[in-house]
Amino acid sequence: MGNSKMSGTNEIDVGYVARLARIRLSDSEIRELQPQLEKIVGYVRKVAELDVSGVEPTAHGIPMQNVMRGDVPAPGISNDQAMGNAPARSEGQFLVPRIVE
Amino acid sequence: MTIGEASGLLATGECSSEELVRSLAATIRRLDKRIDAYVDLDEEYALSQARAADRARREGARGALLGVPLAVKDILNVEGQACTCCSRILQGYRSPYDATAIARLRAGGAIFLGRTNMDEFAMGSSTENSAFKVTKNPADTSRVPGGSSGGSAAAVAGDEAIAALGTDTGGSIRQPASFCGCVGLKPSYGRVSRYGLTAYASSLDQVGPLAKNVRDCAILLNAMAGLDPRDSTTVDAPVPDYAAGLGDGRLNGLVLGMPREYFTGGVDAGVLEKVNAAARICEGLGAAIEEVSLPHTGYVVATYYIIATAEASANLARFDGVRYGQRAKGGKDPIEMYLATRDEGFGTEVKRRIILGTYVLSSGYYDAYYLKAQKVRTLIRRDFENAFRRCHALLSPVAPSPAFRIGENSGDPLKMYMGDILTIPANLSGICGMSVPCGKTSGNLPVGLQILGPSMKEEIILKVGHAYENAGNA
Predict the structure, then answer these.
(1) Alpha-carbon distance B45 to B234, whole Å?
(2) pLDDT at residue B327 greater than cutoff 90
(3) What is the mean pLDDT of residues B73-84?
(4) Mean pLDDT over each residue of chain A, to the nearest integer
(5) Residue B348 has pLDDT above 70, yes or no
(6) Whether the Cβ atoms of residue B354 and residue A23 lie closer than 8 Å to each other
(7) How many angstroms away from the CA of B284 is the closest CA of chain A?
(8) Cβ-based neighbours of B236, under 8 Å, separated by 6 or more
């Protein structure tokens, strides 16, 4: 639900967006990426040139909707297999740093 | 050696699958120091598979792929093998399951000997974005093999593999096939299951074969294609026998279109010369050639880099250090852990695309960028629908240039993106496409002929490619 906002500048606050994407960037990385991304955003804005009134969006290469299957349980991989690549585990669960004090 | 040739030797008993695997592994150890196509070689595992295939053959089992070793791009899950997507963030990860495409090949007796180098998470057009190493083009080792399936293309073209699997989201099978001089096919969207393929852009990704001839691609496609209940984007349509349907080498009755926007001054003269010559050969084989127009070609790169990066930003959110892959040390809470893990684990191009994708989906920008791009995508799809009303298939170059030098484009991301202009449209519209070698430039660099066909009509592009290949000029 955004309002259509495409202002005059190729504004993109790389540090802010990176935080949204949960990627920490160093100051030097931000300095490197900021002009590159401004240039790329400036380029992809050209989609705004086209008149797309009345055109349906294509989310998908082929027209297909609501593919359903029966709700029938079937075996999956075991807890051990699913935990096999866990960086940290305990009692069949993934261990992470404390979320709440 | 092709799949056809390997299969023949195995069938007559001239060699066993075990001997084939040993020989190929030795070849790889000898040649790959120079080419760096492989990131993982599991000879012991492959030998055990080979012995099983030899045993099955003695007991009466048959099949075009029985006992044949294949190379796999490091993005497809093969149970028990590594799967890093050539990213630091997945170092140490071992697949607990087979991708459907892999399982189906395994059921046909194929052997998974090695994993090939790629641009990290399939984001790139040169294989220079691999976290581990840069693959060299066997045609000229100072040049890139293309990407993102550069390792697979280099292995096949350089005779370090009989055939290989790759993936194509914006051209990542076709372009490296063109740069290295082998055949590469991107199936129609929904033709091959994406279950077990690490997702980059879910509405664009496809798994496909790279091989030394069109017939081998048809064999691999036959094994992998078809409805998969585990991937609800696969199409419920029958899989024709692609290898049997290659035809007699004539193209009478076929109308082939050449989109004028793909033959402009932006394409290298040496490339145009070879592709135009290939079109004349197709005419000589009985096809009618027509000029067509795909008027929205100028918008495909912008559309792709909005849609693909948006989808990638969602797909790569799962790499957070919680359940698999690398986890950064010292994070005092999960958010800090995510921030550090993803900073340390992702390379620069991946970060660039995730940030761009996050931006175009973010509040205030979604309508202007992402929704708009989805609508432009409809216009691009309609361009092909219109062209396919008059033509059975389209012919064009694969890329505006032959293989560029290592390092030549890596300082300019946007320039690198523009090189995808001729391959991206097939992914955006979901149609099928193949690159077939059509000669070399004056600098001895391979050039690929792109053959594009309507969605779910791979038999048409295979027929055209097979006929062209056997006209003696490939």
Answers:
(1) 31
(2) yes
(3) 97
(4) 87
(5) yes
(6) yes
(7) 34
(8) B227
**Among residues A25, A61, A60, A31, which one has the least CA distance to residue B350?**
A25
**Residue from B251, B317, B240 nearest B463 by CA:** B251
The pLDDT confidence band at residue B69, using thresholds 50, 70 and 90, is: very high
Helix spans in B150-268 (H):
150-157, 174-180, 214-224
Coil vs helix vs strand at B360: helix
Residue B97 per-residue DSSP state: S
Distance between CA B15 and CA B70 in Å, rounded? 17
CA distances (Å), origin B58, targets B17, B23, B391: 12, 21, 48
Helical (H) or strand (E) element with B396: strand B393-397
Q: Is the Cβ pair B302, A45 closer than 8 Å?
A: yes
Q: Where are the beta strands (DSSP E) in B206-313?
A: 206-211, 255-259, 288-292
- The DSSP secondary-structure symbol of A77 reads -
Q: Which amino acid would we find at residue B229?
A: P
pLDDT on residue B59: 97
Per the CB < 8 A criterion, the answer to whether B153 and B344 are in contact is no
Confirm whether pTM is higher than 0.90. yes
Query: Of A44-58, A60-74, B271-285, where does the model show the most confidence?
Result: B271-285
pLDDT at position B432: 98
Beta strands (DSSP E) in B269-343 are: 288-292
CB atoms near residue A54 (< 10 Å): 6
Encoding tokens for residue A6? 């495409």
Q: Is the ipTM of this complex over 0.85?
A: yes
The distance of B350 to chain A (nearest Cα, Å) reads 11
A98 against B25, higher pLDDT: B25
The end-to-end CA distance of chain A, in Å, is 34
Do B448 and B174 form a contact (C-beta atoms < 8 A)?
yes
Closest to B94 measured CA to CA, from A75, A95, A77:
A77
Chain B residues within 8 A of A3 when measuring between CB atoms: 364, 367
Catalytic positions of B: 73, 148, 172
pLDDT at A100 over 80: no
Number of helices (H), then strands (E), belonging to chain A: the values are 3, 2
Which positions in chain B touch A94 (Cβ < 8 Å)?
Answer: 322-323
Of the candidates A21, A40, A49, which has its C-beta nearest B358's C-beta?
A21
Distance CA A86, CA B428 (A): 36
Q: Is cis: bond before B178, omega within 30 of 0?
A: no
